[in-house]
């Protein structure tokens, strides 16, 4: 047992050193800022070679921005559609490769590009001066002339011009140009609130959380066209720059040249106005029909989300349980090094937000381990976090066992390992079972956090349904019910096992 713990401690010490060093050099900071100068840059001229070698172009986007990028239900399966999707396919075709879409939160795209998780960003992104510090851009492929405030139609008489939003609360997508514009050139007293998803912003608008939501022209007109309860007010806030471009990692001049060649061809043939936008409008019209908005048509989405949620939960529980036992024993050890490692691990993991840990494992550790899947990264991060809490539960359980039990076992000739296995652990787990059960239930709900890195669990699938149906509340209600049923059944199972343990101990 001691040898096993020492081996684990050495490995964990090495991992801790790597993680600490990585934190000090910047990837964790890029999670929120997405513009760290310390991120390990992609080597010049390597991305196009990687694309050619792999035979696929990995495009990062946030599929909640119709008509540029959104989702459509095709025979129960999710399909990405929109102007940017068509452009992505055209670029991939000209490069002689397949197009792979990776959907994630908009404010995570820059980090994903800088760390090599995606090859390009094609998500209605404007090449601002701040973004150009981190990545390079193609030429402008589509320019929107104006931004618009989306308001509730009932407030149409209240808000007629930009100045009417003075002192009001206005929402915008975090990381978007509109969010930056309001922060820099907003009206006196204007309160700017940012959320990752536009669907969440519009739900906030309808529920009175926001007085308006600032969106780009195409996006704003799309939502207003498909929701009779919304109206638009043209924005006159100062714009530093307008237009959408393809984001590429620094130093990839050959890839930028290839993308610009495709954009030039599309603009010369006027494909945006003749093909891409009409196709997106047709997809939107199909998606917004009442017959296609029924939640029953999206059953497969929720089933897929539930499957991923269960996989994440079960794997994370096993990782957390194993790590919990190891670190509980290390913290109780008389060895100062083992004790110190356990304390650092437990305190650090319990003292930092789980979402930051998930993003750090995916973007930060993912730089060291190439091609780390988002699902694996999410499981590792949640398992590591759970291990810290389970360790403290197990430690308290071990401490609750009377010392006389240990002394009696050792006097009967049992080794330390056998004493823990046959005497201490059975009693400790019985004492802490309610606490462990609570941790497992919490972990089931925490699995929703991995949606931020594009894992297709329940919350991720809910976002797809919201975007595809233009309905915000109903998909959330269904997801909430699924989580309730899941946790309710898990609670009943844990209570049943607890009664069995109590029954077996009373018989003994």
From TrEMBL:
Residues 1-24 form the signal peptide. CDD domains: TM_PBP2. The chain crosses the membrane at residues 308-329, 360-384, 476-497. GO terms for biological process: amino acid transport. Residues 306-495 form the ABC transmembrane type-1 domain. It is a multi-pass membrane protein. GO terms for molecular function: transmembrane transporter activity. It is found in: Cell membrane. PANTHER family: GLUTAMINE TRANSPORT SYSTEM PERMEASE PROTEIN GLNP, MEMBRANE COMPONENT OF AMINO ACID ABC TRANSPORTER. This is ABC transporter substrate-binding protein/permease. It comes from Lactobacillus porci.
């Amino acid at each position: 047992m001691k040898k096993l713990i020492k081996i684990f401690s050495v490995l964990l010490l090495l991992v801790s050193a790597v993680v600490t060093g990585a934190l000090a050099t910047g990837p964790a900071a890029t999670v929120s800022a997405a513009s760290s100068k310390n991120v390990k840059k992609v080597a010049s001229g390597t991305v196009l070679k990687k694309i050619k070698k792999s035979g696929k172009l990995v495009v990062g986007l946030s599929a909640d921005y119709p008509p540029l990028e959104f989702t459509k239900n095709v025979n129960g399966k999710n399909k990405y559609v929109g102007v940017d999707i068509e452009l992505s396919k055209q670029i991939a075709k000209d490069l002689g490769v397949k197009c792979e879409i990776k959907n994630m939160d908009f404010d995570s795209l820059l980090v994903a590009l800088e760390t090599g998780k995606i090859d390009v960003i094609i998500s209605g992104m404007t090449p601002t001066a701040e973004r150009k510090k981190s990545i390079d851009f193609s030429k402008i492929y589509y320019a929107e002339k104006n931004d618009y405030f989306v308001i509730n139609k009932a407030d149409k008489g209240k808000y007629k011009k930009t100045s009417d939003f003075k002192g009001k609360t206005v929402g915008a997508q975090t990381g978007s140009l509109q969010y930056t514009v309001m922060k820099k050139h907003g009206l006196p007293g204007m309160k700017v609130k940012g959320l990752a998803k536009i669907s969440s912003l519009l739900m906030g608008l309808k529920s009175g959380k926001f007085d308006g939501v600032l969106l780009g022209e195409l996006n704003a007109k799309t939502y207003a066209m498909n929701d009779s309860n919304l109206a638009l007010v043209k924005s006159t806030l100062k714009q530093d720059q307008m237009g959408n471009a393809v984001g590429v990692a620094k130093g990839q001049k050959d890839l930028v040249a290839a993308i610009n060649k495709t954009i030039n061809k599309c603009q010369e043939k006027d494909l945006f106005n003749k093909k891409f936008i009409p196709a997106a409008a047709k997809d939107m019209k199909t998606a917004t029909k009442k017959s296609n908005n029924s939640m029953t048509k999206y059953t497969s989405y929720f089933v897929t989300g539930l499957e991923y949620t269960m996989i994440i939960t079960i794997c994370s529980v096993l990782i957390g349980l194993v790590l919990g036992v190891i670190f509980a024993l290390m913290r109780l050890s008389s060895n100062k090094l083992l004790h110190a490692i356990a304390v650092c691990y437990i305190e650090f993991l319990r003292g930092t937000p789980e979402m930051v840990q998930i993003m750090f494992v995916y973007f930060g550790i993912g730089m060291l381990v190439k091609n780390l899947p988002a699902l694996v990264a999410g499981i590792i991060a949640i398992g590591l976090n759970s291990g810290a809490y389970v360790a403290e539960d197990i430690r308290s359980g071990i401490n609750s066992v009377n010392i006389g039990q240990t002394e009696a076992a050792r006097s009967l000739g049992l080794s330390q390992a056998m004493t823990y296995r046959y005497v201490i652990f059975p009693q400790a787990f019985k004492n802490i079972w309610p606490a462990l059960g609570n941790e497992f239930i919490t972990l089931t709900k925490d699995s929703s956090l991995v949606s931020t890195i594009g894992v297709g669990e329940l919350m991720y699938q809910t976002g797809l349904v919201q975007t595809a149906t233009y309905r915000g509340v109903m998909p959330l209600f269904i997801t909430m019910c699924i989580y309730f049923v899941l946790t309710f059944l898990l609670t009943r199972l844990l209570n049943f096992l607890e009664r069995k343990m109590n029954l077996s101990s009373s018989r003994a």
